[in-house]
Amino acid sequence: GINMVKRRPDLFCAYVGTGQVSDLPRGIGMDYTRLLEQAQAANDTETLRALTTIGAPPFANMQQVAVFFQSIGKYQSASDNIAMQAMQRSLTSPPPDYSLRDVFYQSQGFTRIPTWRLYNEMLNTKLAALGPDIGVPVFIFQGSEDPVTPAALAEEYFQKLNAPRKEMVLLKGGGHFAVWSMADRFREELVLRVRPLAKRL
């Protein structure tokens, strides 16, 4: 999204970020340390063994990435638990207008993407390297308990941006998937802060 809005600001009224990526190598390193601490505090020998086996990031293969994100899932916020349950329900109880073909392609998408190449690109993202200038208003609605893209790093990136207008809203108790688990609050922020900018559409 940041890449698109920087290249073609004329196509956008605003940029809205959530679960905002900023410096993923730093974020993943912070997550790994936090997970070790949480597993130690919980005397969770299984997770400790898994994390020490894959070692600290950067990860060398998809299997290590999978172990890391499984560990995140084990210690994710209550907000993200709600979001993941909703995602699972969408797979087992698709919308009424879905055909069997739609259900098949949806499940295929979850099993094939992201690829290892895409994960490498994602996990090495450092948005500050693209420069601070964005030609449209910027809004970031960030879960305060986001374990994947920590709010502290999103705030750090946000503070460095130059935009015609910028606002960051911390969604208290929200995790990485706050857009789903806190959908009503998210919608309120969109209507209040972003919708007025799109009146010409």
Largest sheet: 3 strands, parallel
Shape field: globular
Per DSSP, the total helix count is: 10
Specify the structural class: mainly alpha
Tell me the strand order in the biggest sheet: 1-2-3
Helix content: 40-55%
Task: Walk me through this protein's architecture.
The protein is mainly alpha-helical and 201 residues long. It has helices spanning 2-7, 24-41, 45-54, 62-74, 78-92, 100-112, 116-123, 151-160, 178-181, 183-194; strands at 15-17, 138-143, 166-171. The chain has a 3-stranded parallel β-sheet with strand order 1-2-3, with helices on both faces. Strand 2 (138-143), helix 8 and strand 3 form a beta-alpha-beta unit. Helix 2 packs antiparallel against helix 3 and helix 3 (45-54) runs antiparallel to helix 4. The radius of gyration is 18 Å and the shape is globular. The model has no long low-confidence stretch (mean pLDDT 90).
Strand and helix map with partners:
Layout: H1 2-7, E1 15-17, H2 24-41, H3 45-54, H4 62-74, H5 78-92, H6 100-112, H7 116-123, E2 138-143, H8 151-160, E3 166-171, H9 178-181, H10 183-194
Parallel strand pairs: 1-2, 2-3
Protein traits:
single chain, 3-stranded parallel β-sheet, 10 helices, globular
Q: Can you describe this structure in just a few lines?
A:
With 201 residues, the chain is mainly alpha-helical.
